[in-house]
Design a protein that fits this description.
19% strand; CBS-domain; 140 residues; alpha+beta; three-stranded mixed β-sheet; globular; two-stranded antiparallel ribbon
């Protein structure tokens, strides 16, 4: 079985200039844990995961103890989220082609500790494979 057989084809992506606040909203609304980042020509340039957001935004956590009132906290928090997807994304994205074997993808995901891998053709995201996709393949 190959990547093209199990990948999700309608991939949700964001542009480099998408505000992080919008990325967070999208992840929550779509119930997904990561999203590929594309440039103006829709070429893959990065990926953002929940872990990226938590790790890179953890500097905001001390604000909770520093600001005594809710309004001050929310203003400081909003300023911290005024970044773009391009500034916070992981740039070295691990990708596969549509002809990559599912076994190879599963091994790659385990070895690299990643939860999703974009399927790319000519720098364009044509699909995405997540851990649940691998699990469905194993148990079906």
């Amino acid at each position: 079985m190959l990547a093209k057989d199990i990948m999700t084809k309608n991939v949700i992506t964001v542009k480099e200039d998408t505000p992080v606040r919008e990325v967070i909203r999208m992840l929550l609304e779509k119930n997904i844990s990561g999203v590929p980042v594309v440039d103006k020509e829709n070429n893959l340039v990065g990926i953002i995961s929940e872990a990226d957001l938590i790790y890179k935004e953890k500097s905001l956590l001390p604000i909770v103890t520093y600001h005594e009132n809710h309004k001050q906290f929310m203003n400081a928090y909003r300023k911290g989220l005024a970044k773009t997807a391009g500034e916070i994304m992981t740039k070295d994205v691990i990708t596969v082609s549509e002809d990559t074997a599912v076994e190879e993808i599963a091994t790659l995901m385990l070895e690299k500790w990643i939860k999703r891998v974009p399927v790319v053709k000519d720098k364009k995201v044509i699909g995405i494979i997540s851990r649940p996709d691998i699990m469905r393949t194993i148990y079906e």
